[in-house]
Write a structure and sequence with these properties.
The chain is mainly alpha-helical and 198 residues long. 73% of the residues lie in helices and 0% in strands.
């Protein structure tokens, strides 16, 4: 699960406290090897990583990711208890998201190149590709970003068409490429993105 934060300073503390309290309560069962508790603990810990990245706290974000990675590796293959899809692949997807939020496009792209997402849901795979496209946009790699957004669209056109971050990244790409390629213009038309005037 990912928390949407409209006012990071205010919501960060609340989201972090809620996730921390729940994760702490689950830890004794998770530590004893209860699969459902491990899945929930892992999902909450990944949520904490993303929340920290959104308020630019890399130490906390990467610390939570590392905790989740250690447990996921011990846990083995991912499970889907309570729709968490917790496991090594989902931890890697969250590393991509965290790195993009922190403006570390290189780290995001390295994590993306190393992960096999084939066992995850279409929604998770499409969301990861959106983050990969954002990383390419951070590097001003327009062609690569468009290609990745097309891959995401092939997986889940509904998610891509309605995702605010997709519209934002396409607006950014339109500003980078003048004139925009036919493929970028077509994609922009499909999602309702417009070029933002300086």
């Amino acid at each position: 699960a990912v928390v949407t934060l409209s006012r990071p300073g205010h919501h960060y503390g609340q989201a972090e406290e809620t996730a921390r309290t729940a994760a702490d309560a689950l830890w004794p069962m998770a530590d004893q090897g209860d699969p459902a508790a491990i899945s929930l603990w892992g999902g909450l810990t990944l949520q904490r990583a993303v929340t920290a990245s959104r308020v630019n706290d890399p130490d906390a974000a990467y610390g939570h990711l590392e905790q989740a990675r250690q447990i996921a590796e011990r846990f083995g293959e991912g499970r889907n208890d309570y729709n968490t899809e917790f496991g090594p692949a989902n931890v890697a997807l969250h590393e991509i998201a965290v790195a993009v939020e922190l403006g570390e496009a290189g780290r995001a792209l390295r994590a993306a190149a190393a992960v096999d997402t084939s066992g995850l849901s279409a929604e998770r795979r499409a969301r990861a590709l959106i983050d990969v496209a954002r990383a390419h946009a951070q590097r001003r790699q327009v062609t690569e970003a468009v290609a990745v957004l097309r891959q995401a669209e092939d997986i889940s056109s509904e998610l891509v068409g309605g995702h605010e971050q997709v519209r934002q990244v396409i607006s950014d790409l339109l500003a980078m490429q003048d004139p925009p390629s036919a493929e970028l213009r077509e994609l922009a038309g499909q999602v309702g993105a417009v070029r933002l005037r300086a």
